[in-house]
Fold:
Amino acid sequence: MELTLEGISKKVGAQPWLYDMSLAPKRDAVTVLLGATQAGKTSLMRIMAGLDTPTQGSVRVDGKDVTGIGVRERNVAMVYQQFINYPSLRVADNIASPLKLRGEKHIAERVQSLAARLHIEMLLDRYPAELSGGQQQRVALARALAKGAPLMLLDEPLVNLDYKLREELREELTQLFAAGDSTVIYATTEPGEALLLGGYTAVMDAGELLQYGPTAEVFHAPQSLRVARAFSDPPMNLIAAEAVTLGVQLNAGPALSIPLPAVVSKSLTTALTVGVRASALRLQARDGDVALPGMVDLAEISGSDTFVHLSTAVGEVVAQLTGVHYFKLGASLTLHLSPVQVYVFDATGALLVAPQRTGGH
Amino acid sequence: MSTTKPVNQKAWWLVLPVVICVAFSAVLPLMTVVNYSLQDIISPERRVFVGTEWFVAAMRDEELHGALWRQLTFSLAVLAVEIPLGIMLALSMPAKGWKASAVLVVVSLSLLIPWNVVGTIWQIYGRADIGLLGAMLQKMGFDYSYTGNATHAWITVLTMDVWHWTPLVALLCYAGLRSIPDAYYQAASIDGASRFAVFRYIQLPKMRGVLMIAVLLRFMDSFMIYTEPFVLTGGGPGNATTFLSEYLTQKAVGQFDVGPAAAFSLIYFLIILLLCFILYNWMQRVGTASKEGAGHE
Amino acid sequence: MARIDLDLAHSYQPDPRQDADYALLPLKMSFADGGAYALLGPSGCGKTTMLNIMSGLLAPSRGTVRFDGKDVAQLSPQQRNIAQVFQFPVIYDTMTVADNLAFPLRNRKMPEDQIRKRVGEIAEMLELSGQLGRRAADLTADAKQKISLGRGLVRPDVSAVLFDEPLTVIDPHLKWQLRRKLKQIHHELKLTLIYVTHDQVEALTFAEQVIVMTRGKAVQVGSADALFERPQHTFVGHFIGSPGMNFLPARARGRALDVAGRTLALPPGLALPEGELKLGIRPEYVALTAAEDPAALPVTVAQALDIGTHVLVTGQCGELKIKARLNPELEAPRCGDTAWLRVIGPHTCFYQNEELIP
Structure:
């Protein structure tokens, strides 16, 4: 279905929770709402669901204005952070509940097939309290899917699960969404999760909608510093810099030769911010690289990657290195970065230069 | 572009039954009492408006002063005994298993007994000739008589209230204790805390909320005590156990002084309201003192 | 400080009959004095049970817990002189930060001037000095957790400090700072630290030795790179790394290996036992290669996801799924393409009955 939000804003008392925003999530695809806690993701979802009415603006479903129409009269499925199931019903009855409500036939078969899709077919006779967290959330997801609603809202559904479980369930969800024909809205605080879900991403921050577009596009070309900050994990390294003839001069650091757009030389302020993704910092130097010497604060190891926190002349930076690397606290280390892989933002935080991309799509 | 649709106001109708009930059960009777308190009702046909005369008279009534002091002493004594006793009881109750359920049932038994029955039970229990307590005390050479001795009567009423209501305090504290996560006890045992330190620094602070409720409930309830002493001692001997409500009833029903009784009951009502307000605010202050006192060093 | 040796089993049931009845299967394990260890595993793997047995909150159903050779299995936490930090901050609400930190010392009747000195040191280390006079109840969750940490570290003679997922309540962007703090503390105080977590980053970052547990069993004890490069057990390969290791059923025949209907060549010098086994390779080490490479499998690309730092390719080879994490600077295959993925190389591991073939 086609969901359109036009000029939505929400105030609670005198406190603005959502600032004027318009959003048309791509129909029958996944749209990730990405933002830190308190960014307004849940408030926006509640408006989409019809649990709340916006202070201003309208919500349209397939072109029809549904602002102010309650959640009961809309066909929406919702999954929350907490594992919400009917405690007194067995798993099978939990999943069947939306089907029964609609007076549907062949309920048993439907429940079976949904349970099979979420790998909980062996748990159908149990009560929710007898299940693990991951299983409980699977039941909640199955119930939401059983509703067959054209709009599915998921509010950080995996946040309360163990790390590996999250990975598994996320992958299953991507497959379910790809197969289904619902518009899915998925709120998360984790940039990595947004990237793994693919689809489209709307970046939110402090009640504002900052950017919307295909996920990879938003990631690689954030329109502003705020988007870049919200959509990077570990956070993008931001270094104060100044525009000079050959490119940019990092404050207290080396100069990078980057062709800047013509508008910069005309503007009065030359203060810029250079953004370097953690993954753009390397141990080995390549041709044209700039060296960034520093002292190791900590090396965080995830297995697949090592995140090195480094104190340098330009401030503290984080580098993401593939594989396991050990560094002593306080050891000296030189990282290298390529001028073609940095972002440049102007004094207002707008994107001036994005890295040239060779691979990917 | 459309703006917000009006919020659904239908819900207000749902409040109506409550408003009607409260009007009939609370507001109308209260207004009737206010009406009585301003008149001298000589007979149903003859009434004279007297203004605040009854109020002035009530405030100067020596007997009322006496009843008020007796009442305050009694309520404070109730708190002083029931709260610590309730905490001790809660602390000694088993935490889980069938024993916990069994003890809970036994402890709450006295709460299920109607007030007048409680009075009657103690009336018999304390009798010197056939009562278990009375006869035993007599046997032990203690000249116990709740009908003859003012102190004995007062203590008996207090004991009866403690017997009746301490379980309530204990149950509230028990609920408070059960809500403390195990990690606190584990941390304390790792920190090498003594049993007393566990009580002082973990259990007591975590029970603060329920204790506040317990103090308020017991204070208000004991301040309005009527049935038990009425059944047991009828306010005597003399007026040793004539508490406020007992005195009020004597005035209103015993002497049909409807006007003064109405004025008196309004004053009584205001006293309770005021005391609860003070008590509640004081306890809130104690509760939040940590928050206020913490900001500055 | 102490060396800890475990030789025990634990079941919450009175009469355990089968493996599933045990929370901890019979195990032997040693923790060196002054080492930093992590117990890593999914919920229900027995890691917290093991921690509680070490701290003395739980007595093992059989076996011994030795501190410097002395069996302490029946002793209380206080007698073992152990400190433990819990998942959720445990603070004494009515006390100030300073009193909270001093509490374990006062209970042990340390002289007041020494207490003041020690509390000062610990507060300095945890950056709590500015808040010593404040009520602990009013602080943020991470400050409260620092107090809990501080109470664990304040005793100078403590045998070991045990942590039970202590960073659960900490805001993600503050986590790395506390991780760093813990590492520094280990460096400075040289205490035996044992850390329970289900988060691989936490375990691998913090510990010199990580004990990976599943279903009441420790499947591997090793350093981060050992766990990543040479997982001793398929569970370790699956659990460490994101995404985890690819496992492909294979059959060894002399110098050849049958995988998914293709015969691959084994590198010279590698001898495998004949028969059924599993080939394990990390997505990081799967590489695109030329068609008909004898170390590669042909796959149909089911998904090619740009995850920013890499391209995550899921290839379907018959019934098998192979994940590859590819360099974004190279041209990635598109969905529906046929690609050749190299699965045999120096980083490939082989498993028989879920255990690594050495």
Q: What stands out?
A: The mean pLDDT of chain A is 88. Residues 163-179 of chain A form the longest helix (17 residues). The two ends of chain A are 28 Å apart (CA to CA).
